[in-house]
Design goal:
This protein has about 350 residues and is α/β, with parallel strands linked by helices. Helix content is about 60%, strand content about 10%. It has three domains: about 140 residues, 3-Layer(aba) Sandwich (Rossmann fold), CATH 3.40.50.300; about 60 residues, Helicase, Ruva Protein, domain 3 (Orthogonal Bundle), CATH 1.10.8; about 120 residues, Zinc Finger, Delta Prime, domain 3 (Up-down Bundle).
Length: about 350
């Protein structure tokens, strides 16, 4: 995904250097690691360090903070050492850089030191644009590693799938969906969960494996409650709700889980077309479209509208508008499980 986005950017701004995804980083004199996704940026830089150490274990590593930069630091670190070992200079906070760093980095780019790799981390914003433009024009001397934020579930599913593929581990689509659902808000936690399963789980990793390891995740419990209620299983949904609350689940994420599923249903209400076409139109994964279409069976537009109203009321209730958040949640589950309640 990042590579395709980078290609579009290159076409618009006539970028002369290669722009690659985080997992395609390679050694070159100057490497710009751009984009807001810090976890991917950290992993890319770590991957580069590992590559360089594999080539020469005597690699010297130094860190600079561009927002606290003192004149002369970059040139001093890049100067040839007595034993001529290769150097990796990691520079953080370039989006907040001092004027001194900006001037010296642009000057350094004109004649980079031999056997030295300077990695510049820029998280976004306009500060340092002159330097970014200079790097992107430095053909043959620089590389840009694009660490775009993974916003769509499809992107997170691809990320999780790649985690298992890189270790040649088999994982079912259901297990991937369960992981992304459980760790949707934190890419670092999603990666950690994948690595734990790779290390500990035997044979094929299935949805049951994920359930065994991460049954306590609030998000997983919340979506189970939502699934039961939307399917019309009122008793089951209420039992799951009480179990989730007794296990320490917070009411706010539970409402958020319902809202996520109901929003998808509302988007697809009355929409026609294949799952791939609808997924592209609404920014969803095909499996999300198919699941929402199944969920919509037996629902009326009026009932869906009523449930969305109840969701808004419950969201306010669990955030302090009412004293009894549990009552508000149980009322919401009941209304949704009965497809919007009695006709008014």
């Amino acid at each position: 995904m990042a590579t395709r986005a980078a290609g579009k950017t290159a076409k618009k701004t006539s970028v002369a250097i290669d722009q690659v995804a985080w997992d395609r980083i390679r050694p070159t004199s100057v490497i710009l690691v751009s984009g807001p996704e810090q976890f991917l940026a950290d992993r890319a830089v770590r991957q580069l360090r590992d590559q360089l150490v594999a080539e020469d274990p005597s690699l010297e590593v130094n860190d600079l903070e561009a927002d606290h930069y003192q004149p002369g630091e970059l040139i001093s670190l890049a100067s040839p050492s007595l034993f001529a070992e290769p150097r990796l200079i990691r520079v953080s906070n370039v989006e907040k850089c001092t004027d001194a760093f900006l001037a010296e980095a642009i000057r350094y780019l004109e004649s980079p030191a031999e056997d030295t790799y300077v990695v510049l981390r820029h998280g976004g914003g306009v500060r340092g644009k002159k330097l970014l433009d200079a790097i992107r024009a430095a053909q043959g001397r620089a590389l840009e590693v694009v660490c775009a934020e993974l916003k769509k579930d499809t992107e997170k599913l691809d990320f999780a799938k790649a985690e298992f593929s890189s270790e040649r581990r088999r994982v079912t689509p259901g297990a991937l969906r369960a992981l992304v659902t459980a760790f949707n808000d934190d890419l670092a936690e999603l990666a950690s969960a994948c690595q734990q399963l790779i290390s500990d789980a035997a044979a094929e990793i299935t949805e049951s494996t994920v359930e065994k390891y991460y049954a306590g995740r609030v998000e997983t419990n919340a979506f189970k409650v939502a699934d039961a209620a939307i399917a019309g299983q009122q008793g089951e949904a209420l039992v799951l709700l009480r179990h989730a609350l007794s296990s320490g689940a917070d009411p706010v994420p539970i409402v958020a889980a319902f809202a996520s599923k109901m929003r998808t249903m509302a988007k697809l209400q009355g929409a026609s077309g294949g799952s791939g076409q609808l997924a592209s139109r609404f920014g969803l994964a095909p499996w999300q479209v198919e699941r929402a279409q199944r969920d919509l069976r037996g629902w009326t537009e009026e009932g869906l509208g009523r449930c969305i109203e109840i969701l808004a009321e419950t969201d306010a209730a669990v955030k302090g508008a009412q004293r009894d958040a549990v009552y508000a949640l149980e009322r919401m589950v009941t209304v949704i499980a009965t497809r919007g309640g009695p006709r008014r």
